[in-house]
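HUMAN: Spend a minute on the protein record below and explain its fold to me.
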Amino acid sequence: MGQSAKPAPASASVKPSTNPPNLDSIQAIPCARSLRVLVADDHEMVRFGLCAMLQSQNIEVCAQAKDGQEAIEKSRQLSPDLIILDISMPVLGGIEAAQQIRVFLPDVPILFFSTHKTSQVVALVQSVGAQGFVAKDQMAATLLGAIEALREKKTFFSF
């Protein structure tokens, strides 16, 4: 009792993890240059939480946007490597923003992160050129898996 199957060496000290439990097993994949991500969501707490999670995985958040119009402007200014968009945002929604971003950044992967998770919505995001979709009720590991897939020029749809 009280012994673990794999005891730590006597010189090692065991510290509790500061990451949420579902992120402990995810390893950031080293690359020549950091992935620069733009995050657009109208809910500040969602945006801040998403950015903190990305940064904990050594992913650079180059900008945040609170609506689709701001996402377009910051995408044009910064040319991120990946864009994460919510669907429902004020001023301009994510679908419309993606259509406009595609004009000047045709090859940048777009990942939708939304509570709207029907097959019709997924078909709609695909029709505007998105390479991924993750429902907001999915685990953080799912979102990180989607980001890694898009980094590798693959698609990822989970809803």
